[in-house]
Amino acid sequence: MHDYLLNNLPKQLETPEGYIRLSGPLEHDNIVNGDGLRAILWTQGCPNHCKGCQNPETWSYEDGYLAKIDDLKEELKAFKGQAGLTFCGGEPFVQAKACKEIADWCRSELGWNVWSFSGFTHEIIKEYGKEPWEFLKSLDALIDGPFILEKRDLSLRFRGSSNQRLLKLQSGTGKILSIE
């Protein structure tokens, strides 16, 4: 599984500078994808294709739509009472550069914490490095690992299968502070 996922991470989705490919509109007041009220950014594109995925419509690298990052920032700025932003997908780490730009802006301009889901593990992202590792270092929390249908467990907080972990991270370093 490790090598399979490590080989999928280089399959970055190409977008024009200043854009990100989304699978749907931004959400706000979400309480199921992280602590507190959260804004949610739904990325498009995923190379992992987990059996039983709840969002298979986000797998294609061509579907969804291009969104201008500056427009998304304006939209996020209008959301009141949010504790943070969560990147969902699709696979946010295949658009790591754009996601990092948005994450850093949310932290500095809005004072929000930033979470992301990923079918890749912390270890794989760190081993691969490059833009995905830089994006990970901008996070406060990562829910990592592929969804595995045979390990599905609906009692877990913010996770779908028992192999997935909720990692609290030291922002700026990517260091794991705690594991749930």
Describe the structure.
This protein is α/β, with parallel strands linked by helices. It has a single domain, classed as Aldolase class I (TIM Barrel). It is built from five helices and nine strands. It has a seven-stranded mixed β-sheet, covered by helices on one side. The chain has a two-stranded antiparallel sheet with strand order 1-4. It starts with a helix and ends with a strand. The mean pLDDT is 96.
Summarize the structure.
The protein is of the alpha/beta class and 180 residues long. It has five helices and nine strands, in the order αββββαβαβααβββ. The strands form two sheets. The protein has a seven-stranded mixed sheet, covered by helices on one side. A two-stranded antiparallel ribbon has the order 1-4.
Summarize the topology:
Elements: H1 2-8, E1 19-22, E2 27-30, E3 38-42, E4 65-68, H2 69-78, E5 84-88, H3 96-110, E6 113-118, H4 122-128, H5 130-137, E7 141-144, E8 165-170, E9 175-179
Parallel strand pairs: 3-5, 5-6, 6-7
Antiparallel strand pairs: 1-4, 2-3, 7-8, 8-9
